[in-house]
Write a structure and sequence with these properties.
Layout: H1 10-18, H2 22-30, H3 32-35, E1 46-51, H4 66-75, E2 80-82, E3 88-90, E4 93-98, E5 104-109, H5 123-134, H6 152-156, E6 167-169, E7 174-178, H7 186-189, H8 200-206, E8 223-226, E9 234-239, E10 253-258, H9 262-270, E11 276-278, H10 281-287, E12 293-306, H11 311-314, H12 316-324, H13 328-336, E13 341-342, E14 353-354, E15 357-358, H14 359-362, H15 373-387, E16 392-399, H16 402-418, E17 422-429, H17 431-439, E18 445-451, H18 458-461, H19 478-488, H20 495-511, E19 515-527, E20 531-532, E21 535-536, E22 543-544, E23 549-550
Amino acid sequence: MLNFLWKKGDVFMKIQKRFGLGVVITACSLILVACGNSSSSSSKQVINWSEPSELPSMDISKATDTISFDMLNNTNEGLYRLGKNSKIEPGIAKSTKISNDGMTYTFTLRKDAKWSNGDKLTAKDFVYSWQRTVNPKTASEYAYLFSGIKNADDIAAGKKAVNTLGIKAEGNYKLVVTLEKKVPYFKLLMGFPSFFPQNKSAVEKYGSKYGTASKYMVYSGPFKMTGWTGSNLSWTLKKNNNYWDKKNVKLSAINFKVNKSTTTGYNLYQSGKLDETLLGSEQAKQLSSSKEFTVRSGARINYLEFNQTQKVFQNKKIRQAISLAINRKQLVKKVLGDGSVVAPGIVSKGLATYNGKDFTEDAKTYDGVKSDKAEAKKLWAEGLKELGTNNVQFTLLADDTDAAKDVSEYIQSQLEETLSGIKVSVNNVPFKTRLSKSQNGQFDVVLSGWGADFSDPISFVDLFTSDNSYNNGKWSNSEYDSLISASKDADAGSTAKRWSDMVQASEVLMKEQGVAPLYQQAQATLVKSKVKGVIYNSAGVNFNFKDAYVK
């Protein structure tokens, strides 16, 4: 375990040292196009892409993170694909019929869909996949998304058999899905990887190895993966010649390389070895005028999650004091500097509107997201008194990327300079390790984050119900649970009531400081001007490379 203890101002000195390439960056930015001319000829339909962290899983039932979902979205396909601005586009389903009551969906599948190994892709592959995900034995953390499909909740709870799930194949090319309650965002879900088909023969053939390396998978989408061993930091997506729409896939390959250091990524970009790379704070400032500079705003909130199985974090005032002690404006401007903004709450701005108002406007509250050092000190002292102690020590768990290191060290500095008797250790670990530790409750406080799976506030607020598998901190509030339940059941058919339920739930979470939202994430990047057609969506899966090409 590597711990960092910083005095006031030290974190900024470290950030300056890490990104102390201003002169070099400025010089290169003047000749940016020339610096990149060594890349492969534009006649070759190959692009080289940077990733900030390792790839955890390619198992559709078990994947939980943005990198895994990006890879699954481009190597596989569901009933629909999500195009620009999350617009529904045809996927494996070529037509859809919806019953008058909105409770039955009948999908007609295309007959030319195949798996990468040549197997026919049929309705049975969807039935198998969905049943596998909701089966409690699979322990899928995304099984909760199937709520609303007939018997899904009872199956997940072990009360009904898996084969009673409201999905059935009528022959090879007709799929019928029955709901038990209205799901307003159902079509968006059909474009999300958790609802993609799976090849039963492949799952059974590879057993526990399924999805743990590129060779232990078969693929249904525009590309197939090669070169991923399960732990290495590079892999390739190659055009899938068995894909039904291969004639419209222009790229022959996408090479991915993990670069946890933005300095390393930038150097590779300049030498022509990358066509895209993330930028650090100082890099973004220096390169913001480049024609290849772009900021991608995400429907993602990064927050502190407290392990509330521990007595100290069961104390509301302790949680509030920690949140209040962090200067979020300084965090996004001086530490991140990549276009990220102060979190408006637990739901991201720009995700969803009702009656012309953004969700964050209706749910606007300063509780849980404001910074006030005087109030932080007051509540901290009161919390310590209630706990009967004069000091608190804990470890802050975070990823080992440059950005996560900077943020975690800044938080450490803010807390130790503001709150008397606190000692914070920082443990920066690989992304995959942080996910595992979070899921297993092996943390005190964790710097976590969530990107919306689809453009609806429920994708955020559903996380913190008492029984949600992603509620790693185990915060629990009966009023909150009731509001979320109402939004998904009794009020699901009323847009106004459902919206009000979610607004109220968001306010409860913030007032109780169930978690401490920090910032809505954006990513400053450089992308070579020759790369065209890449679709980026802030919600759901971020990247869609199906229509991408090199000009």
